[in-house]
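Need tokens for this chain, all 368 residues.
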Amino acid sequence: MEEPRKIVVILGNGFDLDLGLKTSYKDFWESEFCPKDYPAPLIRHLNSKWNDHLDAVRWYDLENELHEYALHGDKTDVVNEVERSYVLNHSDYQINNELNYLGVRDDFFSLAEKGYIQLEDHFIKTAQIPYRDDFSLSVLDRDKKAFLLIKEGLCKYLTSIDKPIPESLTVAFHLLLSMTKCVKAGDTVDIYTFNYTRVQMHGYSMNSIPVFYMHGSCKDSMIIVGTRDGTPMVCEYDFLQKVMDDSFRPPDILAALDKADEVIFFGHSLGENDRQYFEQFFTKQVGSDNLKEPYIFIFTRDSDSKVDIKRSLKSLTGDRLSLLYSTNQPIIIRTGELKEDQKLFFDFLVAHHTDRHYASEVIGKLIK
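Here are the structure tokens for all 368 residues:
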């Protein structure tokens, strides 16, 4: 009889996306919850960075961009002094009165074009300035509030779409299902998620599988957003780092990885912003004193993301990827190109207490 396994599952945004949850950066930025009209240089920077290329933006792109903005971003005010004076010295009533009877000043048109004045309809019957009071704040204070609004808006957006995972023909669902079977067979499974959405399955109990939220969860209305520490940062903008958030108390994933017999990554980029959680683990895999070599499975989207994963592994092992492959070859399974990797997924399911016939049936449906 096989010894029980200690399995650690690590989830990134690709897990939610594989399940069909609309948790991409684009989904949030296009939602009503995103403060994209807030008058702060940080918002201007993010709005202008990707323009029409939101489809390709990942959450780690946002984290990297926050770091870039802190170091090199244009922090000049989004309004000039004349526009600021106009905002602070006109009430909504005065603006509406001016629109209807006195004509429109250039300041109004400039502010409306930037999105800081909202018009009721095409004929400009009424207008209002939602963030009027904030125009009296300094640029730094408005950037701080913009960052807070991003976190609050993201939490509200994810809460609006968060729901138990229905039974579905996705690789992500069957990964979770296989983990419940592992627990029933006596294995120990811990899930560490970098997502803010709940990890739960409709109709299946997951009470025996502890879930640790690395950066908070929307169910607790407490999420950690930002870039990592350990890199250069302009002092007054270090509020953009996760570690500066008062709620930052990540679970001890390093100890869990150290004790694991098997580590499963699903939809995580293994990129720079979470490097501190994984560098020690992968460095140990290529060390000569490593006596325990856990099985490593990595689920990623396609061939392009597989290349990105390998580049991340190169970095995490200090450019010793060949040594990692010679001592502990990670198995990479492409969820979006499962036809090419169906044997790898079949072997994974069977090794995690899935009936061979059922595994074949599931994969057959997935690759149709």
